[in-house]
Amino acid sequence: MKKDIKKIFFGNKGVTLIELILSIGILGIILVSFLGIFSSGFRFVVFAGDKSESTFMSQENIDSIISGETVDGSNITTTTMNIDLPDGSTIDIDGKIVTINESKNDQNSVITTFIPD
């Protein structure tokens, strides 16, 4: 019995060409599937980076408007915000609604905020 097991694992003197070609083919199929996973993952990382950059640019523009600077491409609407309190009274706050739309490589970011006067 022990001799049969040794013969199966250690009895071969080498690998045939067909076995080598089949193993390379199987390895190639496995590597191609992993390549697809990594390339789509990399694409999603790039999209997320572009989205983060466009959001950061929008936030920078909002901060500039809050500090009193003028920003091109901003949509500013003067309005009064009404806040209804639980006791039935209302607080009116004058201010501006500011909307900024930034994009980088087709990844858009829109930030809308209320800035009180």
Summarize the main sheet. 3 strands, antiparallel
- Compute the number of structural domains: 1
Helix/strand class: alpha+beta
How are the strands ordered across the major sheet?
Answer: 1-2-3
Summarize it:
By secondary structure, this protein is α+β, with helices and mostly antiparallel strands. The protein contains two helices and three strands, in the order ααβββ.
What is the topological layout?
Elements lengths: L1 H9 L6 H50 L8 E10 L5 E15 L2 E10 L1
Structural account:
- By secondary structure, the chain is α+β, with helices and mostly antiparallel strands.
- Helices cover 50% and strands 30% of the residues.
- Strand 2 (90-104) and strand 3 form a beta hairpin.
Characteristic key phrases:
single chain, 117 residues, alpha+beta, three-stranded antiparallel β-sheet
